[in-house]
Amino acid sequence: MSLKLTILGFNSAIPKKRSAPTAQLLEIANRHFLIDCGEGTQVQLRKAKAKFSKINHIFISHLHGDHVFGLIGLISTLQLLGKETPLYIFGPKGIQDFILNQLKHTQARCTFDIVFEELENKKTEKIFEDDKVEVHTIPLNHRIYTNGYLFKEKPKKRKLNIDAVKNHPEIQVCDYENLKCGKDFQSENGTTISNAELTLEPEKSFSYAFCSDTRFKPDIVPIIKNVDILYHEATFLSDLQEMADYTGHSTAKEAAMIAKEANAGKLILGHFSNRYKDLNVMLDEAKPIFENTILPTQLGVYEPEIHAIKMDIKT
Amino acid sequence: MSLKLTILGFNSAIPKKRSAPTAQLLEIANRHFLIDCGEGTQVQLRKAKAKFSKINHIFISHLHGDHVFGLIGLISTLQLLGKETPLYIFGPKGIQDFILNQLKHTQARCTFDIVFEELENKKTEKIFEDDKVEVHTIPLNHRIYTNGYLFKEKPKKRKLNIDAVKNHPEIQVCDYENLKCGKDFQSENGTTISNAELTLEPEKSFSYAFCSDTRFKPDIVPIIKNVDILYHEATFLSDLQEMADYTGHSTAKEAAMIAKEANAGKLILGHFSNRYKDLNVMLDEAKPIFENTILPTQLGVYEPEIHAIKMDIKT
């Protein structure tokens, strides 16, 4: 599977003994993206047996402590580990000063470059792209400037139908790349063999959307339409709707409504208020609206449903 | 016992799964003093079942991350818990900007005053005093400006010898306070009863010295002379003396030499380099010099030896 999400922590506000604040490690197309970095994230990464050296991109949703207080510690540890490649940090305007001021006071010896990509756009934008992956912001509505992030694999190349290809000895190995890219085969004698005859559908490209913290914001639906996994905060139940609106959070019902409208493959709830001891109440509220809703577990690993099953669910 | 030390963490540099960075909770004469605050300290405090509301004074030795990165998270949690009384933070010059800049960017809502007491004196000084306790700095020698701290109870009042007092009906309850303060009793008819006849020795006043991080610095001995418990960093063994000097740390042997010269009651080592898997090698090096040396345990609680035993050790 080319997408694997590890929930390092999903607690809101105050770190507890057995539940770390928000942080996630997303492995997508062999990239290792860290999403949010509450206090203690580096220890959670160790528990998850993550490879620190592979983390070169960090995406911070907003500058509330439970999403960012672990960042300076992680940076310091990467320095002590001798990291040399640049570290790219995406986050709200201000994050550069927030980190650099701490590095200045602690007289940290930087062994690598930190490249800050400060965000202040209130509309969605593509902030990262390489040959396999794109990352887009999901503008959210919280008490301070906040973005969710949509991570999606680019369309993959078609797969060679080797048996079909072998029926045409005039097709050489150096032609394969054109076929994978969808081109028909043109022989030297002028005949054409259609690509559909020579190749199979590419493997599915997966996507993941992280939405925390935010009030109910249905205008994000077009951005995350058909996402394979949606993580959406659900700090409260609906009986505390006013509290949710006031504090800039969502209810489990609202998270489920977003997942349903977006036709998501799977919904993971998170960022629960500490008042809820039995989190099954969250499922009780969300599942009638969006059945494929799950609760996260600390250090839990999540992958998209396999394609066939997912297609069944969606039809 | 009027002095109780809880080691919240004693790891050096990089936080690990099972060993938190430096932080200690000292309960002395019913005060709750937090000493250093590495990342994750607030979770360690929870594990130690500490009462957050009683922490009004925090002493930071120096601004290296493994001693201070947990401070902003703890402050934020105190705010969320609705703390109202002032929080006094003692630490190197710069700590105020270090914290206030983080509070600014995270738009924290302060429910209480933070009073920063920034230190830059290179000589020992008394930085805190109330009716029962004094705190003095212990200037250390590290890569950046660093202080250890000496916490000591003031001399306690003498105890009434009730049987002796009752033999003198002319002594009234309102005279007791003068007796506890060491005064002789003067009766109205002019006779004097000596204080020694009416009172017993006061309970012992205890003291604790925290010394981390530092190179071997024997000129601190007069400051910590006869301290009941000494915590002294021992990052390395003597075979890495050059490394210790270069990085501004001590060896187990040097820590023991300080304890011996200071006539300490007990020595707790800490801040070990992660290269040492079996920490008993630290004891092997220190104990021949200072027998009453111990290794800390995570969340371990330490009290001074009871008086009689300690006196035996010292004679």
TrEMBL record, chains A, B:
Cofactor: record remark: Binds 2 Zn(2+) ions.
Catalytic activity from the UniProt record: Endonucleolytic cleavage of RNA, removing extra 3' nucleotides from tRNA precursor, generating 3' termini of tRNAs. A 3'-hydroxy group is left at the tRNA terminus and a 5'-phosphoryl group is left at the trailer molecule
Pfam family, one: Anti-Pycsar_Apyc1
Co-factor requirement: Zn(2+)
Binding site for Zn(2+) 2: 66-67, 213, 271
Domain of life of the organism encoding this protein: Bacteria
Alphabetical list of InterPro entries matching this protein: RibonucZ/Hydroxyglut_hydro, RNase_Z/BN
Top-tier EC class: hydrolase
Gene Ontology molecular functions: 3'-tRNA processing endoribonuclease activity; zinc ion binding
Keywords, ordered alphabetically: Endonuclease, Hydrolase, Metal-binding, Nuclease, tRNA processing, Zinc
Metal-binding among keywords: yes
Binding-site residues, Zn(2+) 1: 62, 64, 142, 213
Active-site residues (renumbered): 66
Assigned protein family: Belongs to the RNase Z family.
Function: Zinc phosphodiesterase, which displays some tRNA 3'-processing endonuclease activity. Probably involved in tRNA maturation, by removing a 3'-trailer from precursor tRNA.
Subunit and interaction comment: Homodimer.
Protein name per the record: Ribonuclease Z
Species, as recorded: Moheibacter lacus
Gene that encodes the chain: rnz
